[in-house]
Structure formats: structure tokens, C-alpha cells
UniProtKB/TrEMBL annotation:
GO molecular function terms attached to this record: ADP binding; ATP binding
Residues in the signal sequence: none
SUPFAM superfamilies reported in the protein's UniProt record: L domain-like (SSF52058), P-loop containing nucleoside triphosphate hydrolases (SSF52540)
Entry keyword ATP-binding: yes
Lineage: Eukaryota, Viridiplantae, Streptophyta, Embryophyta, Tracheophyta
Keywords for this protein: ATP-binding, Coiled coil, Leucine-rich repeat, Nucleotide-binding, Plant defense, Repeat
Residue ranges of coiled coil: 30-64
Gene Ontology biological-process entries: defense response
Protein name (Swiss-Prot/TrEMBL): NB-ARC domain-containing protein
Membership in a protein family: Belongs to the disease resistance NB-LRR family.
Species annotation: Nyssa sinensis
Domain NB-ARC as annotated: residue spans: 146-307
Length: 664
């Protein structure tokens, strides 16, 4: 009997201990409610940081034409889902607790927060990927890859060319060649620069020098070329990769030493859409890069879309959609991203759109390629995402496009959805840019995370879409000998002309529907006629760059609908007439030569943004100007500026401090 009592006592003791621990745990959820919520917020912020780091590596790999690993995509999908789930939880449940304190409800929320925190921590730890992506090898490319490698070993060959239509994978090929020879130790230095359609020798020199850790001291192209030549002609084998060459390039003028048969000279690998460029440059070995075979295209398409293509309801559509991509890797990746996870109705509609699109006369791009890329645009989930994409077409080819410029254009045109402030608009545009990146329609900027780039084929297609759907006129180049014919621009709603020289402007720009005008002239020119803007009274966005104005055209004061005015890097004297632009909301003098902010600016009481960054000659901001701009949300001034006139009121100084502390 004593043994039984002892056993029962032991059992009761264990049950009691378990109950006490359980009760303590339950009570702990109530006691540690605030601690659990704060811990969840802390861990989700860490997860967000890890997600950004992984996404950055993904963007870099994808920009190089590599295929992202499946486990990376799965992890990113889980992270996006978890972040949304936690945001909703913190927004709904926690806010409810602040309004109404109920023990049972607080216990449940605290317990759920602890559970979600554990999941977030594990998800963050799972994001430590050793490998993000891989270069996809294709049988049709292996032979060319091997021939390029052989040519690089041949002392009689110093210039090698890879050519094909835009988006076929030339860049991905030469990037992989560079990685391979660097791994094998064949060359001492391997450096790469993008040349693009409008050749800028100084920019090419800068990119090469950056990758060589060389500080160029010369101001002239010749001086910089000599420095680069000496660095590359150092008795060691060096490889220079020049991507996207559109016309004959004088390598000597850039500073690249190439002499066949001489050990220690550079070898150069070029890519171009035009084989004729290589003939002019006397390239010894040319390698054509064609589209993928049907089998290779399908394998790549399946990898991007995932297992959904095995669904019998989708598979037939998927096979035909893939065929419509024309074997172009970039098109395959873009269309696959647009259709991933969609149902059979969207696949059927996509196939019809691809087959029914009008033929587009884009040099070097087949009609099937255009319709493939147009589909990615049509499948964008938001109208303002479409506008964000089209606005990127207003910039030069291979430009690093500032997200701030997109914000200002979008706010001026009122095409950004559901935003009231500039900060809200900037957040929205970052979201839209992220969407465009995931759809392969935008690329990560080279250095600045607040800038993006467009693949040149995507840009060509975008310009064509913008012309058809929104009456865009985009012409960028070196010299504009004559202004476009009147019947070309008269019905346009958006015009972007960016040139080195603009010889002559019309006396009056008759374009009654125009809402956006972008003019850039690298060699400062001037609009002489005061009547120039008389026929553009619907203008909402006006961007004038690198221009010369002794006084602004008087017709500018008639633009009563103008919301955004940019006078970036302009040479200005008298800007007092800007006071008449009563509806102006954004005004930029960035990089201009103004010495004193015009006192008349204080009359622009609707102004929300004033940009004076890089105004190196700015000496004075008159009193009571900034304080009069009572709607001002953002003020950008040079960090060294202290030229506030002594008469400035305390309100003026206080407003300057509040606005500038978080903007500089």
C-alpha cells in the first residue's frame, strides 16, 4: 500500500509540475505581450534586410543572364508572403488591442506573435545561400563558347566579336567568358564596359578605369587614354570586354592597346547587333549568336514558369506561347515571368495576344520578339506600373534612370495611383519599379540602388508601345539638324528630344495636346522665340536640361497647368517670371549656375518641392522665400550652403532646418 501511495504521489507531483509549467507559460504570454510584439517587429526588420541582400544578388545575376536557383525563388516567395502576413497581423490584431484591452484576446495575440517570430527567425536563417544563380549552358552555345576560349589562347588573334539581335544573350555569353578566363588565370586583369548606341569615350574610359582601380587624372580624352594605355600595356595579358558596340570604335582613342602577335598586349572581345561594325574594326574572329532551339527554349521556359506547365489545361498553351517567343532568351524570361502562376484563361489570352500583335518595324527585332515583350507590358498588374515603364523610355539608351525623376514626372502627370504626398509617391514608385524588375522589364542600376536601367530591346519595344498607346515621340542622338516635321509632333502628348546639338527651334511649338516636354542639349543651346510655348498650354511636365537662357521665354508664363519644371544644368540669368506659374508644384534648378534664388519664387505657394542640389554658384537665398512656401514638402540644398540672408525670420530658419535635416 505504501508503494502504491508513493507511486500515486509521484504521479500527482509530476502532473502538478506540468500544470504549473503550463500555467506559467500561458501567463507568460500575457506578461510578455509587449516583449513578444517588439521581438516580432525586430525580427521581421532583420528578415527584410536579408531579403534585400538576396534580391540584390538575384538582380545582379539576372542582369548577367544567369538563371536563378529554384530554392532562391521559393525562399523569396515565402519571404514576401510572411512579410505581408506579419504586416497584416501587426496592423489588425495589435491595433485592435490598443483600442480594446481583453485578457483572452491579448493572450491569443501574444502567443501568435511568438509563433510568427520563430517562423521569421528560421526563414531568415534559410536565406544564407551559397549560390544564387548559375549560367545556363545550351548545346547550341557550347561550340561558340569553346571557340571564343580557343581564340583567346591564340597569339595571332587580338580582336574577337560576338554578334546577334538584341536580347539573344551576347552579354551573358561574354560575361561568362570573362568569369571563366579569370578563374583559369589566363589573364591578369579582366575588365568590361558597355559602349551603347551613343558613344561616350570618357564614360567608357571611366568604367574601365574603375574596374582596374585606376584613378584617371587627365581632363581630356587623349590624356585619359594615355593613362589607360599605360595601365593596360604593362607586360601582362589583359582582357577588355566591350559590350553593345553600335559603330566603329577607335580603341586607341579609348586607350586600349591591341597589337596582334605581341605578348603582353590586350585582347578585346566585342559584342554588337551589327556584324558590319566588326568588318570596319578588322575583327579577326566573328561568332554569330543565334536564337535558342525549340528544345532549349522550352527547357528554359519551363525552368522559369515552374511545374504549372505540366498542368494539362495549361501545357498546350505554354508550348505555343514559348514558340511565339522566337527563341530569344530575354523574351522567354520576360514572358515566363509574366505568366508564372496564372490560370489557363490567362494563358489562352496571352497566346492570342502574341499571335495577333501587329508587326513592328524595329531594327534587328523580329515581330515575334516584339509581341513577346509587349505581352509583359500588357500583363503588368497596375496602370501606374505601365506608366512607370513608359516614362523610363524618355531617357537615353543605357541611362541610369533616377527613381526621383520618375516620381516627379509621375506626380506632374497625376499617373501614380492613390498618393497624396511626395513621400507616398516615392514609396509607390519604388514598389512599381520592383514589379517591373521582377517582370524582367527593368534592370538594377550599376551602382546606385535608387537608379534603374532598361535592356535596349525592351526600351525599343517600350518606345513603340508608348508611341501607339500614349502618342509619345522619342528621339535621342548626337545632332538634331532640323526640328521634327510639324505633322510628326503636332498630335503628340509626350515628346522627349535629347541631343548633343540642337541647331534650331521653331518659333512656336504648335502642339495643343502636349502634356510632357523633355529637351536636353549637351552643348548649351537656347530657345530664342518668346512665343515658343504659346501652342502648348496643356503642358504639365517641362524638363529643360543643359540649355542657355538670358531670360526665359515669356510664353512660359502662360502655362497655367504646369506642375513640374526642371531647369537642370541650365545657364540662367533672369527667372523672375516663374512667379506666374501659380500651379507649379515641383521646381528644380539642380546643377544650374544661379547665384541667388529669385525672391519672386515666394509667390509659388503651391510648391511642394524645390531642388537646389549641385548649384555650386548659389550664394544667397533671400529672406521670407522658403517660409512663404507653406506647402513645401521637400527642399534640397547643397550641404555646404549657409547663405541665408540675416533678415531671414526665425520661421524661415526653422523651416529650413526641418526640411533639410532629413534631405541632406
Amino acid at each position: 500500500m505504501e508503494i502504491v501511495n508513493a507511486a500515486v504521489g509521484k504521479i500527482v507531483e509530476q502532473i502538478t509540475e506540468w500544470l504549473m509549467r503550463s500555467m506559467g507559460l500561458q501567463i507568460g504570454y500575457l506578461v510578455r505581450y509587449k516583449e513578444n510584439i517588439e521581438k516580432l517587429e525586430e525580427e521581421i526588420e532583420k528578415l527584410d534586410g536579408e531579403q534585400r541582400r538576396v534580391q540584390r544578388r538575384v538582380n545582379e545575376a539576372r542582369n548577367d543572364g544567369e538563371i536563378i536557383e529554384d530554392d532562391v525563388w521559393r525562399w523569396l516567395t515565402k519571404v514576401y508572403g510572411m512579410k505581408e502576413e506579419v504586416d497584416k497581423f501587426l496592423g489588425d490584431q495589435v491595433q485592435e488591442q490598443k483600442r480594446c484591452f481583453i485578457f483572452s484576446s491579448r493572450y491569443r495575440v501574444s502567443k501568435e506573435a511568438k509563433k510568427k517570430t520563430d517562423v521569421v527567425i528560421k526563414l531568415k536563417d534559410d536565406g544564407n545561400f551559397e549560390r544564387i544563380a548559375h549560367y545556363e549552358t545550351f548545346d547550341s552555345r557550347a561550340l561558340i563558347f569553346n571557340k571564343i576560349m580557343e581564340a583567346l589562347q591564340d597569339n595571332s588573334v587580338n580582336l574577337i566579336g560576338v554578334y546577334g539581335i538584341g536580347g539573344v544573350g551576347k552579354t551573358a555569353m561574354v560575361v561568362e567568358v570573362g568569369k571563366q578566363v579569370e578563374k583559369d588565370g589566363v589573364f591578369h586583369d579582366v575588365v568590361m564596359a558597355v559602349v551603347s548606341q551613343n558613344v561616350n569615350v570618357k564614360e567608357i574610359q571611366r568604367k574601365l578605369a574603375d574596374r582596374l582601380n585606376l584613378q584617371l587624372k587627365g581632363e581630356s580624352e587623349d590624356g585619359r587614354a594615355a593613362e589607360l594605355w599605360n595601365r593596360l600595356n604593362n607586360g601582362k595579358q589583359n582582357l577588355v570586354i566591350l559590350d553593345d558596340v553600335w559603330e566603329e570604335l577607335n580603341l586607341k582613342a579609348v586607350g586600349i592597346p591591341v597589337t596582334a602577335g605581341i605578348k603582353g598586349c590586350c585582347k578585346v572581345v566585342l559584342t554588337s547587333r551589327n556584324q558590319g561594325v566588326f568588318q570596319k574594326m578588322k575583327v579577326q574572329n566573328n561568332f554569330p549568336l543565334g536564337v535558342l532551339s525549340q528544345e532549349e527554349s522550352w527547357n528554359l521556359f519551363k525552368k522559369m514558369v515552374g511545374n504549372s506547365v505540366d498542368n494539362p489545361k495549361i501545357q498546350n498553351y505554354a508550348v505555343d506561347v514559348c514558340k511565339e517567343c522566337g527563341g530569344l532568351p530575354f523574351a522567354i524570361l520576360a514572358v515566363a515571368a509574366a505568366l508564372k502562376g496564372k490560370d489557363e484563361h490567362e494563358w489562352a489570352d496571352a497566346l492570342k495576344q502574341l499571335r495577333d500583335s501587329m508587326l513592328k518595324n524595329i531594327e534587328g527585332v523580329e515581330s515575334t520578339v516584339y509581341s513577346s515583350l509587349e505581352l509583359s507590358y500588357n500583363h503588368l498588374p497596375f496602370e501606374d506600373a505601365k506608366w512607370c515603364f513608359l516614362l523610363c523610355c524618355l531617357f537615353r539608351e543605357d541611362a541610369e534612370i533616377s527613381i526621383d525623376d520618375l516620381v516627379r514626372y509621375g506626380m506632374g502627370l497625376r499617373v501614380i495611383q492613390n498618393v497624396d504626398t511626395l513621400e507616398e509617391a516615392r514609396n509607390r514608385v519604388h514598389k512599381l519599379v520592383g514589379t517591373l524588375k521582377t517582370r524582367c522589364l527593368l534592370l538594377e542600376g550599376s551602382i546606385d540602388k535608387n537608379k534603374v536601367k532598361m535592356h535596349d530591346v525592351i526600351r525599343d519595344v517600350g518606345i513603340s508601345i508608348a508611341k501607339d498607346k500614349e502618342a509619345f515621340l522619342v528621339k535621342h542622338g548626337v545632332d538634331l539638324k532640323e526640328w521634327p516635321e510639324k505633322d510628326v509632333y503636332q498630335r503628340c502628348r509626350v515628346i522627349s528630344l535629347r541631343y548633343e546639338n540642337i541647331d534650331e527651334y521653331p518659333d512656336e511649338l504648335e502642339c495643343s495636346e502636349l502634356n510632357t516636354l523633355v529637351l536636353e542639349c549637351r552643348n548649351a543651346s537656347t530657345i530664342a522665340s518668346d512665343a515658343f510655348f504659346n501652342g502648348t498650354r496643356e503642358l504639365k511636365v517641362l524638363d529643360l536640361r543643359c540649355m542657355l537662357f538670358r531670360s526665359l521665354p515669356s510664353s512660359l508664363s502662360n502655362l497655367s497647368n504646369l506642375r513640374m519644371l526642371c531647369l537642370r544644368e541650365c545657364k540662367l540669368e533672369d527667372v523672375s517670371m516663374l512667379k506666374d506659374l501659380k500651379n507649379l508644384e515641383m521646381l528644380s534648378f539642380r546643377g544650374s549656375n544661379i547665384m541667388r534664388l529669385a525672391p519672386e519664387i515666394r509667390h509659388l505657394t503651391r510648391l511642394r518641392l524645390l531642388d537646389l542640389q549641385s548649384c555650386d554658384y548659389l550664394q544667397v537665398i533671400p529672406p521670407n522665400v522658403i517660409s512663404s512656401l507653406y506647402r513645401l514638402e521637400e527642399l534640397y540644398i547643397p550641404p555646404w550652403f549657409n547663405g541665408w540672408e540675416v533678415e531671414a525670420t526665425n520661421i524661415e530658419r526653422s523651416r529650413q532646418e526641418v526640411l533639410c535635416d532629413f534631405k541632406n
